[in-house]
């Protein structure tokens, strides 16, 4: 495993994972100098990258069953490796970045089968595994006097509250645990966020964004934030610079074969003013997003042409065409199985936006202020399924969002 060369804090670093080939590259932006590389590491694309303090990043190696703490700015890239239950579904930490939780999900299976949850204390290296409920639970870890692990379950829907200390002290053998408190949710929850400043947790459902606030060792439900549209969001992200929630509202026929007809709106809810804004993105496949210094970036895939959509100050919209991908989703097929996709990354303290070109091993480095491509990086792996990316600066505040992305 090669050592990473120390990098100035002012230089943005891009982590690029090809979870199929089993590699992780760390590159400087915008020039693309490779500062470190890992091989034989198949990171969970679904659990994603979790920003930790001081420019560090947490992720899960699904093949080896390890949580990795990476320090792209340090002398050694892998700072810590701790065994966890896999396949990893969701990853989150408390606001301090010390206490982590990893849930398990479907993996390559067609039905929920694993009920294992792993909790980790990075300060001591302690970890414990317990059994909760089989499914695909989302997770947040609330801070305060005694941190709480909040699992977002589906069918039946609920926010299940566990004391972190109780889980960490569980005996060996993966014992079943009972929630300390429960808050009902609709059955179709998908998407989680936390606002650390006020101890709020958010969960996306068909009805809107359900929010709850910590009260002691339990949660108290607050008013649901409506989507304001017949469509719904399947993904939530906290904007740490503007104190807002972001999502993409997908509408149209649910049939995945009709994905080119899906409608998409950027949805932003300002947590300070309570104002909600929706912006049309266009038809096709739009899912995850990335937050830069002054812009929010979305990629839109469509048979008639792909593009990067940048939402800027004063709600301006800039569209930049992206070159087609061989193996891209096509009409008459689904946008999920056996096709190439794109990943998008940004840092809240940088104007660079990064977009992958799945199957081609390419990463577009785009200046969000102009919408122009500054350079195109070519890696030694194809970036199957679009791979996964995270752009970090050492002190960019990205760790203010304590949910893996």
Outline of this structure?
The chain is mostly beta strands. It is built from one helix and 33 strands.
The number of distinct helices, counting runs of at least 4 residues, comes to 1
In CATH, the homologous superfamily goes by the name YVTN repeat-like/Quinoprotein amine dehydrogenase
Range of strand content: 35-45%
Distance between the termini: 25 Å
The biggest sheet, with number of strands, parallel, antiparallel or mixed sense and barrel status, is: 5 strands, antiparallel
CATH class equals Mainly Beta
Alpha-beta classification: mainly beta
Total strands: the figure is 33
What CATH architecture would you give? 7 Propeller
Explain what you see:
- The chain is mostly beta strands and 405 residues long.
- The protein has a single domain, classed as Methylamine Dehydrogenase, Chain H, CATH 2.130.10.
- It contains one helix and 33 strands.
- The protein has one helix spanning 164-168; strands at 13-18, 23-28, 34-39, 50-51, 57-61, 66-70, 78-83, 88-93, 99-104, 116-121, 126-131, 138-142, 148-153, 158-163, 181-184, 192-195, 200-205, 208-215, 218-221, 232-233, 237-239, 244-251, 263-270, 276-280, 289-291, 296-300, 306-311, 317-322, 344-346, 352-357, 362-367, 373-378, 388-392.
- The strands form eight sheets. Strands 20, 21, 22, 23 and 24 form a five-stranded antiparallel beta sheet that branches. It has a four-stranded antiparallel beta sheet with strand order 3-2-1-33, with no helix packed on it.
- Strand 4 and strand 5 (57-61) form a beta hairpin.
- The longest helix has 5 residues, at 164-168.
- The mean pLDDT is 96.
